[in-house]
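To close the chapter, one final illustration. This time we ask the reader to focus less on the individual chains and more on the assembly as a whole: which components sit near each other, and how the overall shape emerges from the parts.
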Amino acid sequence: MNSLLNYAIPGVPYGCEFALMAVGLVLTYRATGVFNLAFGAQAFLSAFVYDLLQRADGMPQWVALVVSVGLLAPALGLALDRFLYRRIPQASTTGKVVVSIGVLIAIPELVPMVFSATTRTRLGHLWLPAGQVYLHLAQTPITGAVISTVVISVGVVAVLAAMLRWSGLGLRMRAVVESRRMAQLEGIAATRVAATAWVLSSVLAGLAGVLLLPQMGSLDPTQPLEFTALLVAGMTAAAAAGLTSLPGAFVAGIAIGVLETVVQQELPSGSVVAQGIIPALPFVLLVAVLLLNPRLRTLGRDSDPLASVDPPPPQPAVTTRDARLALPMRWGFRLLVVAFLVSSLTWVSDTWVFPFGQGLAFSVIFLSITLVTGMGGQLSLCQATFAGIGAFTTGQLAAHLGLPVLLGALAGAALAAVVGAGVALVVARVSGLLLTLVTLAFALFADSVLFQFSWSGGGLAGVSVPRPQLGPVSFAGDRAFLLLAFVVLVASAGLVVAVQRGATGRMLAALRGSPAGAAAVGIDPARARVTIFALSGAMAGVGGALYGSIQGPVSPADFSYVVSLAFVLVVVTTGSRTVEGAVQGGMAYAVIAQALTYVPTRFAGIELILFAAGALTYAAHPEGIVEYQRSVWLERVNGLLRAHDRYRQERGGGVGPSRHGDGGYGSRRGAAPGAPAAAEVVGRG
Amino acid sequence: MGDPAAGERAGSGEQSAAGERATAGGGTAVAGEPLLAVADVSIAFGGVQALAGVSLAVAAGEAVGLVGPNGAGKTTLFECIGGRLRPDGGSVRFAGADLAGVPAHRRSRLGIARTFQRVEVFPELTPVEHVLVAARARQGGGMLWRDLVRRGTPRPDEVEQARALVGMVGLADAADVPVAALGLGHTRLVELARALASSPRLLLADEPSSGLDTTETAVIAALLRRIQRERGVAVLLVEHDLALVRRAVDRVVVLDSGHVIADGPFALVVADPAVRRAYLGRSA
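The assembled structure is written out below.
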């Protein structure tokens, strides 16, 4: 018993860190309806600045603390509210999560660019000297670090909880989250309540960052290992508290810290258990809590009684185009494709053929996001994991069984499809935010456990995927490979269009539009999700195999959860609902990265910042900001055409061609794919 | 304007198939048992007893109105039949089979179609696509494979039937317009067309007139009658508008505070003192 206590006590400060993260997640969710995945990034920013001031500028500890936590953190919270979340109060929970992913990715990329410093090491502790032993508890020495972590965490959370409970602020926050407009009608200044919540949670994040830094070493979300542990445990504790109770989240966080410490010490350290089972436990716990906590069942379900007054989402851009534009645009597109192929097979330099090939592979992976997010309406954060399964399977089969790469890719796609279906089966009963969090848990799990074995992702060493060979034809050269990738992409795009236009696409559109209505006509939502996840998994698997094959050596870092998040950011920027969006995203992702090799490495983060900024507009333009801009331009051209028609009519020079985009299935022949709707209708919506 | 008869022919053919499936799947069909038999259904939300032992029956091809003041439990009863709520006690039987534990989407495939008080349409889809979705969903799986083979184009006969059905509810002009762009009156018609697409034997209509003007309400009333008389679909209609109820149904069941307080022909039920009390208060 005493030895158990010996293990448990060191777990408490770890637990405090998890608890602060959990409390931060609960606070923002309760107060603003945002599941703020960027909490860790906010913590990172304050910690980074604190470190910088104290170290480089030699400021006293308390001044650095005031600047980083007392000034910077609230300013960041206000900025997030003012420029991002206040503009999207009616967005879906998923939309808000995407915005927070944008922040999560952007901040750590932005910070080193602004401060031109990258090294972060463990620093001295707040308040009490870290190393000094103050007392012994059950023969365990209690250091200053432990005391200050525990005391400060408990104190801060107690003050917060008291504030929410007794000042009436908590009640107002709940009212605003329940129905912002209803609360406003009742005379609550909803914007001020939300701003307060963001300031509070941002200060909490900052404080957590400064407290955590000495223990965690690094809070950079792109330096995953330690941050993953924090994120997973924090999410578990927040979920265990039903995303509602601050004290509950705090206690759950400490309990998880203690539990993990005890498990690590007590369980046998045999090879299989130590390498496979123990590291997997936090993820299993997270998924179990997400799926089994009955208080999470209603999560993200739109309960706003005034929701029905919202306008419907905009139609994809392509439906607004004038019928007369269809033909020139289609031929223009074909010309562009031919020009791309011919030039990259002939005169384009090798430096650029390679990223072009990468872009085609990315496009195939991104089509899997078109399937699951654009069509399936579910935000999956493990698409890079599916791609990794495809790549690693191909490589392993080639290395161990000598299987041809093309067959290996098919096997990888099949395996990724099975895994995708498995993920969908696990989440059969949930959708929306819960599903998204489970996919994130799976991505984190694959990252730090599944891909770390020599038989899977090969850990740090990685896996080598050869270039394919088809009979006498070798695709070893970059240009030959580009041609192959192009063929695969065209086939994949054809498949996506077929599914989109067909019965499956209509069924998914029905499920997106109204789950209740879909059930009323006999659509099984769980089955639909399994179908689309399997298909999406297969697509990502093929894309991953292509990517692996063009890269040669790939490692789990190529398919980490951060990569999954980056993929999502790219696709929601260029458009998750159309094939064009995925292809534009894939090409842009590879080409911009190549272009940035010409600038100082310090600015390499610009690419992700660019797409993160695009994703910040997701809630306002769920069809993708690029897609939206395209529709604006199309509308302008339409306007010019209409003006031209009127002019000709006034001149009496004959009647201008009528503006019928009328597709319908009978008369579909003339209409472009995916544009069944009459063009003149959309403006009214 | 499509050919309404084509849709009717197709509809009646599929209808018997749906019936066979229902009996085959459920087991004990008893001769003479009504199509829908609700027996002693109770459900409570927290301390509120929404339904307290409600029983009612709808025969095949019959049109029944379900009325009652707000909060009487009408929509709750609907959700129990439709499968979105699970009653605490009692049973719901359809075509001889007990529906306990059958999820909402499976009930639809058994032959129960419904419309919603707050419309639940698919904004991105056109009326024709609504009908296509419903007709396909009833057939279950195999969709993906057919999409890939046919490159996403629906079969011409499917489209023809869908157009006929959309024409029948009077939406031929708006057949290819995304529903998001239609007004409430039209969306209610879309819901009806979609409900009919699955060739149901029972149609649950939840306040189809709410939010509509008198002309639109009259259209709905006539349509409900046609659905019942021409297609032989039994109708259970929840409605506040008594004029609509009078025109659309043969028999009326009155709910008040979770109890059935009257059951009979429209004229008799409206004259019933207990019903008048429930609607107008004790003093009436």
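The domain at 348-623 of chain A is CATH 1.10.3470 (ABC transporter involved in vitamin B12 uptake, BtuC). Chain A touches chain B through 49 residues (CB under 8 Å). With these observations in hand, you are ready for the problems at the end of the chapter.
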